[in-house]
Amino acid sequence: MPQNIFILTGAGVSAESGLGTFRDKQGEGIWAKFDPMKLATPEAFARDPEAVLAFYDLRRRNLRDAKPNAAHLALARLEDSLAKRGETLTLVTQNIDDLHERAGSASVIHMHGELLKARCGRCEAVRSWLDDLTVAHICPNCGRAGALRPHVVWFGEMPLAMDLIDRALRESDLFVAIGTSGAVYPAAGFVAEARAYGLRTCEINLEAADNARLFDEQRLGPASEMVPAWVEELVGGSTE
Ligand code: BJW
User: Fold this and answer.
1) Over the stretch 97-147, which tens digit does the pLDDT of each residue have?
2) How far is the CA of 183 from the centre of ligand 1 (A)?
3) To test the ligand 1 pocket, which listed residue (58, 95, 117, 184) has its Cβ within 8 A of the most ligand atoms?
């Protein structure tokens, strides 16, 4: 039984909660319908802020109706069980939804930001934001209009908490990637770093990721079935 587990989740963990993934082999992901270069870059926001804000308004509204699924719940259970034994779970998600938190995970690192927060491009203040966001909104911190944006990490921007993530990776024994295609860096490179630090690596995914060859173990199937089964194997026999 590993003592410190590092988990990286991606869009696949929230797919069965009704939130779309970005890329899939059937060509039905978000980026098949919307051009990421027109919606998920700082240049796109500078060029056409209304279009970018409307894209995130739609996703924020979809998130309101979504509920955590069995995979989110199992990861919260795992965190709780490890904590009772004095062991740790580092849960890093690329997802901007809050389904891990709503499932009960106490500590979640959102490396690509959070949809339910807005950030001011001028003063950098970040605050909770549950409603639609428009260019007319005024930053409650600095009072300027037109600079509020979703608190998310677009292509070409530095993902969040990278120092914390690297430290946690070094201190872990097992790296598990769940529902991520291994197509977007730096997250796609974590498995190689984990191997270099001597961690065992495991992929849980519906279909093999682009970087699947770097995993010691692979469990293919829907996250809502595979994750609870894996967690049960790890902690099911314990008194919790
Ligand atoms: C299921 C399932 C079910 C489905 N059960 N599974 C080389 C090195 C470094 C950087 C680069 C590089 N080459 C290019 C770059 C730059 C770029 C990049 O990676 N581009 C690639 C396209 C090549 N990266 C960046 O720009 C990043 N910043 C950066 O690199 O800064 C410099 C830096 C360098 C080095 C160190 C540190 C910093 C920023 C990336 C920002 C990504 N932003 C987005 C949008 C966020 C906001 C939003 O949500 O709108 O993040 S893009 C999108 O992709 C989103 C996701 O978090 C991200 C990853 O997607 P994910 O989660 O893997 O989802 P999918 O859809 O790709 O895959 C779904 C998976 O689920 C599949 O595998 C399915 O099988 C599976 N699945 N149903 C289980 N039921």
Assistant:
1) 999 999 999 999 999 999 999 999 999 999 999 999 999 999 999 999 989
2) 6
3) 184
